[in-house]
Inverse folding.
């Protein structure tokens, strides 16, 4: 037999389950393995491994009588030790909460503690937006031009 035929036999044994070989294929393998030692070893290895797998598949392994009880007890222990507490929650989200508190504190300091700076402008306006809106200047009636010049006066200075 040729080297090509020997490779064909080994490929056939490797790619086809032993139980899936037809009688024609088995007879070709038997004829070839009578003369080729390498193919005979491959065929015998496939046969032995198939028989071992079949025998192992017949065996059934039963778990010990208290297997389920031990597994469930272990799961209960793990659940008891891994319960979420305030401490674990703080460890998980502490950095985020701390940074949020620091940001709020910084914004409060910038808003209330530091004095407000007024930009100097060439045109002095006696009214502030708060004074006009809350009528703190003492005027009973504020004209529309006073309100508009107070609110939009700084923008006109920037445009110029």
């Amino acid at each position: 037999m040729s080297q090509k035929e020997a490779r064909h036999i080994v490929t056939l044994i490797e790619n086809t389950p032993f139980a899936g070989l037809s009688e024609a294929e088995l007879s070709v393998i038997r004829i070839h393995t009578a003369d080729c030692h390498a193919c005979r070893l491959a065929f015998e290895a496939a046969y032995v491994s198939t028989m071992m797998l079949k025998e192992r598949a017949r065996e059934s392994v039963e778990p010990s009588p208290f297997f389920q009880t031990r597994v469930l007890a272990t799961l209960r222990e793990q659940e008891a030790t891994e319960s979420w507490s305030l401490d674990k929650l703080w460890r998980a989200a502490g950095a985020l909460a701390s940074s949020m508190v620091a940001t709020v504190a910084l914004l409060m300091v910038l808003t209330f503690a530091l004095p407000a700076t007024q930009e100097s402008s060439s045109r002095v306006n006696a009214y502030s937006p708060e004074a006009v809106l809350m009528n703190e200047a003492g005027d009973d009636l504020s004209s529309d031009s006073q309100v508009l010049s107070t609110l939009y006066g700084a923008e006109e200075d920037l445009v110029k």
User: Anything to note?
Assistant: Residues 86-113 form the longest helix (28 residues). The helical segments are 3-15, 23-35, 37-58, 67-81, 86-113, 129-134, 144-159. Residues 9 and 28 are 8 Å apart (CA to CA).
